[in-house]
Each structure stands twice: as structure tokens, then as C-alpha cells.
Amino acid sequence: MQRRDFLKVLSVLLLHWSTEEQQITAVDAARAQRNKRIVVIGAGLAGLAAAQQLQAKGHQVVVIEARNRIGGRIWTSTKWPDMPLDLGASWIHGIKGNPLTALADTVRAKRLPTSYDNYITYNSTGKPLSSAEEKRLEEIRTQLFDTLQKAQNNDKDDSIRHVVEPLLAKNEPSYLQTCRFLNFILSSDIEQEYSGSAHRLSTQWYDSGKEFSGDDVLFANGYRVITEYLARNLHVELGQVVQTIDWGQSPVRIVTRTTTFLADQVLVTLPLGVLQSGKVHFVPALPSTKQAAITGLGMGVLNKCYLRFAKAFWPANVDWLEYIPVMHGEWVEWVSFLRAANMPILLGFNAADYGREIEAWSDQRIVARAMQTLKTIYGPGIPEPIDYQITRWAADPFAAGSYSFNPVGASPALRKDLAKPLGKQLFFAGEATEQDYFGTAHGAYLSGLRAAREMLA
Ligand SMILES: Cc1cc2nc3c(=O)[nH]c(=O)nc-3n(C[C@H](O)[C@H](O)[C@H](O)COP(=O)(O)OP(=O)(O)OC[C@H]3O[C@@H](n4cnc5c(N)ncnc54)[C@H](O)[C@@H]3O)c2cc1C
Fold it and tell me: Residue 415: is its pLDDT beyond 70?
């Protein structure tokens, strides 16, 4: 159905309801009651999952999306036709019992397993860690996580950085090494996973989510196979930037830059960063518990820099290349696409403060800095990349960050508040509303299913 037709149907229905009420038979009323006009805001995993469920129950559903594409933080680039690459989520994390595994099976998606156990770690001078260095790194890792675990029993919450700081005794002979190793663990084990800065992450709640077990798998043809499947048969309106949600009356009015939509129920799947930006106005304003949830949770950063080479120059048998930098957070994690996909492509990650900082740099400066790290490891003679792809999720106005995290002062209860419906008209989904699986693709999907159940109840 075209947008114009849909609006026509909406206005006919509205007219029918308002001026010819007396003519509606009991059967019509029951049908009208059953077949609600529903607007889903956002065509990411959460919105598409919910829209499928709602449409299957016979409701009139339209998904309105600001971008000119579906998927949101699922975004498969086809710039390199022989290797579709994900600029947002890449992996199904933990395939056992993960609802996305069932979807991937349904669409017969080819998947490529990668393993965190399949790695090599290089020290700051670019040499693989000696066995003494490996032992020291493991000692510091154990100390760090023991310290965090103990601090989780404290009455008062504190930032991860502040809690682990005492592990650095300034006068010990290997102070510099300890400092770099500690920063490396903070960056690779914590910031890259949770996307928040160690200066802000809550010691008590940073890891409050759950995980599925089993392998991590990439999609050979990109994560888009899932969002394209979920969007089938749905009416999706692209290029509709929502500005105002007027929910104080029935029907709810959703005002975009070009159109006004009317709905009996609205599902908001706007990313936390967009809600925090205040660029979408709620009329009346959201209640204080909802606002406290929006401001109390954190929106973090994880960015990607894909480098494509004519030929690989790194070890063929590992998935992860790790580097212990001099400065905190610089180019610590790399994924090789050589073993999993037989492609001479490296993916460098940057998270949290450093990830956010370099978004302001030019592409050329980012690639040059990435190459500086690779040259430290593999020598100055390595070839320059033939092409690159770089993300800037914090600067993206329709994401305003990569995914949510629990900062100091936040607890999982805030996510419950964020998810809570307001009356019978306004519902909320999206990864940040998920208590157990926040920050993930499966969390977004599950939140959409949860919201659909609430709307159908
Ligand atoms: C770099 C990166 C790597 C990641 N890696 C993984 C991974 O490997 N595995 C994993 O499980 N998860 C990963 N994630 C997290 C995962 O991508 C997200 O949790 C999930 O895709 C979020 O889905 P969502 O539906 O909640 O939000 P979104 O996908 O962001 O959907 C919200 C939609 O709302 C739209 N929108 C925003 N503003 C407006 C507006 N004003 N009007 C109308 N529409 C609007 C957006 O354009 C978007 O389409 C990663 C995320 C990033 C950024």
C-alpha cells in the first residue's frame, strides 16, 4: 500500500469513527476494536520484529523510519560486492537458544564462526607476548576482575576506572607495563564489549545482562538477511523523520517533517541516544520516571574501520589480533577475515572515549593511525590498504551512539522504566529497554516481541 492510500484509509476510518458513530453496528465496532491502527517508529530489529507480530494479528501497521533504508543499527555495506560487511552489528553472540539463530535458520543464512580463543596478542613494540608477559597479563586480569567482583558488594557504586586504580602502585618497577596491561584489559574486555568508558561504567551493574552460550557467528552475506526477512510484507515508510509524538489524545498524532500519522497505538523504538538528544518531542512531556530512565542510562560508542588489502600480511590462522597500545584504547582489537571468509580484510575496533574522539578525524587520518599500529606490529614495509570503510555511530543523528550501557548511578530497574507502556497508547522497545540482553541484536529483537505482546494484551 502506498503512503497516500494508507493515509486515505486512516482518514476514512477516522471520519467513520467521529461523524458516523451511530451507524457503526456492533460487529463493526468489535472489528474496529480488534483491528487497531498501529504506528511503529523505527525500522530496526525491535520495530520490525514487533510490526511482524502485530500485522499477523490483523492490525493495520505502518513502520515509519527516518533513514532511507531499513535495519537501523543493522547495516550491511555492499561497497565491496564480493564481501558484504556489517557496519553495525556483525555477530550472533552465543548461538544456543538465541532467537536470531532460529531466524537465521529460517532464511538459511550462511554463517561464519569466529572464536575469541583464536587470537594473538602483541605488546606495545609489536612483538607477540613472551610467556612471561602472558603470565603477567593473566595475573593483572585476575586481580582486576577479583577487585571488581568484590566492589560489587559495596554499598556505594563507583566507576570501574576508580575501583581498579589502586592496582597501580606508582613506585613498583614495572609500573609502566602494569599500567598498559591494565588499560588494555579495561579496553578489550570491558569497553569494547559494553561500549561505555571505564570512567563512567558502573562497577555494580556494568555486566548485569545475560548471555547465550555457544559460538559467535558472522553472516556471510551480512546481517541484512535478518532485517530484510522481518520487513517482508510490511508497510515501511522511509525518510520519515519523527519530530513530535502527541500522545495526550486519541488517536495519537505522530508528526514527521512531511506528514502526520494518526494511530490508536504507537510503538517507539527510537535509540536511547535519540531519546537523550531531545530532538523528538513528546506532548505531553514524558513522566518523570521515564525521563529519569532516559537520562540515567548511558549510550556508548563502538566504531569500526575495515581495511582491505591486495594481499594478507598477518597470520592466517587467527581470528583476533590484539595490540597493547601505549595510549589507552587505541586500536586494541582487530578481527581478521582471512580464516573465516578467506578475504584479506582487517577490521579495527575503537570504543568508548577514544572511539568517540576519533570520529572528528578525517578518514585519511583514521586510516593513517590504524596503519601506524599495523606497521608497529608487522613492519614498515606492509602494503597500504586498497580501500577502507569507517563508521561514526556517535555522530549519526538517528543512532547517537552504538548501544546502551549501565553508568554509575544506573541500575537495571531503569530499563524496566524505559520499557513501561504509558497508558494503552504509547509503548516502548529497542535494545536499551531490555534488562537481560541490552546492547545486542537479540536484545533488540526480544524487546520488539515483548512490546508486541503488551500491545496485543
Ligand atoms: C558498531 C556496532 C556493532 C555492534 N555489534 C553487535 C554484534 O556484533 N552483535 C550484537 O548482538 N549486537 C551488536 N550491536 C548492537 C545492535 O546492533 C543493536 O543493539 C540493535 O541493532 C539495535 O536495534 P534497535 O531496533 O533497538 O535500534 P535501531 O536499529 O537503532 O532502530 C531504531 C530505528 O529508529 C530510527 N530512528 C531514529 N530516529 C528517528 C526519528 N526521529 N524518526 C524516525 N525514525 C528514527 C533509526 O534510524 C533506526 O532505524 C552493535 C552495534 C553497533 C553500532
Answer: yes
Average pLDDT, the chain: 93
Q: 40: CA distance to ligand 1 center in Å?
A: 15
Give the residue-averaged pLDDT of 321-343.
97
Q: Which three cell numbers stand for residue 221?
A: 552475506
Q: Is 316 exposed, middle or buried (0-12, 13-18, 19+ CB in 10 A)?
A: exposed
**pLDDT band of 1, cuts 50, 70, 90:** very low
Q: How far apart are CA 9 and CA 413, in angstroms?
A: 40
> What is the tally of structural domains in the chain?
2
> Where does ligand 1 bind, in terms of residues with CB under 6 Å?
41-47, 64-67, 72-74, 88-91, 93, 240-242, 269-271, 274, 280, 302, 304, 391, 393, 398-399, 402-403, 430-431, 439-444
What atom in ligand 1 is closest to the CA of residue 241?
42
From CA 145, how far away is CA 173, in angstroms rounded?
A: 23
Please indicate, yes or no, whether residues 242 and 354 belong to a single structural domain of this protein. no
Ligand 1 atom with minimal separation from the 432 CA: 26
Distance between CA atoms of residues 107 and 124, nearest Å: 44
pLDDT at 15 (0 to 100):
31
* Same domain membership, residue 306 and residue 279: no
3-state class (DSSP) for residue 181: helix
The 10s digit of each residue's pLDDT in 419-436 is: 999 999 999 999 999 999
Q: Note down the domain range covering 186.
A: 116-214+302-392
Name the residue among 173, 214, 223, 180 with its Cα closest to residue 73. 223
Whether 92 is covered by a domain: the verdict is: no
* pLDDT tens, residue by residue, 89-147: 999 999 999 999 999 999 999 999 999 899 999 999 999 999 999 999 999 999 999 99
Note the Cα 294 to chain centre separation in Å: 16
Residues 120 and 200 in one domain: yes
Residues 199 and 124 in one domain: yes
